[in-house]
Amino acid sequence: MKKRKLGKSNLEVSALGLGCMGMSFGLGPAMDKKDGISLIRAAVERGVTFFDTAEVYGPFTNEELVGEALGPLREQVVIATKFGFEPDPNDSSKWTVLNSRPDHIKEVAEASLKRLKTGVIDLFYQHRVDPNVPIEDVAGAVKDLIEQGKVKHFGLSEPGVQTIRRAHRVQPVTAIQSEYSLWWRRPEEEVLPALEELGIGFVPFSPLGKGFLTGKIDENTKFDSTDFRNVVPRFTQEARKANQALVDLLSKVAERKKATPAQLASLGCLPRSRGLFRSQGRRSFIAWKRTLERLLSNSHPTISVTSIAPLQRSRWKGRGIRRDWSN
Fold first, then answer.
1. From CA 33, how far away is CA 17, in angstroms rounded?
2. Of 161, 194, 201, 290, which is most buried by a Cβ count within 10 Å?
């Protein structure tokens, strides 16, 4: 497994990371704990060193799973977790309230350290930007945790460019985590150029389109009642049907290359995860993108890599959470 450093930091991670959320939360019933531990440790055996979790996944149970699985292997891996939510006072089963007050951040850090069975969090992300708390205060709280030796690196998830710049002036940001795939390319507009300028790493999540780009989901797929894709606009039956042509084409190209649709789709995100865009990585990405655009154009003129309607609405927008792109 190749390694990469995130931006200008000294945080080295495997080129492929493992997002652990779905083992406990969001994608149907939670995995059996033993199976989850086996899966995580099998990933380490295959060279994965970068693992992502959050207190809200479960809540809490995913951090506990990751902590138990990686405890004996702690020196070999990098663990990222997140803060920024709390239970809804009207329904404690729903973690939809944003809270990035400095005192809350520090409370979350202490609790996450215990669940993860570790003395330090390698990468501590703000899960979503809290409009009620200045980002300078958030960065300052994480800076305090870094100075105390409880956190190594600061990250932000789905922030806007100005938020990134303001935070970075208080505490250097190591990585930005945002959704990025063949059907969600918005980071290319402003975020990626800013990260290149500032020397901040970029960690794409959902590079396989939350499973759709694997070819295992079609318009007739039924999701479990606990699967969050039930409320994601791009996963309506109509949207899946409208965009099936993309997956069909990926499957055809992948078959010629003796690969899977998932492997082909993931190529568009891997070079970007290097953080700083070294010339070779950038050229290879551009070449890949142009080739795929040409294939798509030749086969299905109505489909574009950069704008695959009706997929551009996020499930967060209606809930007021993912609203920081322009800030």
1. 20
2. 201
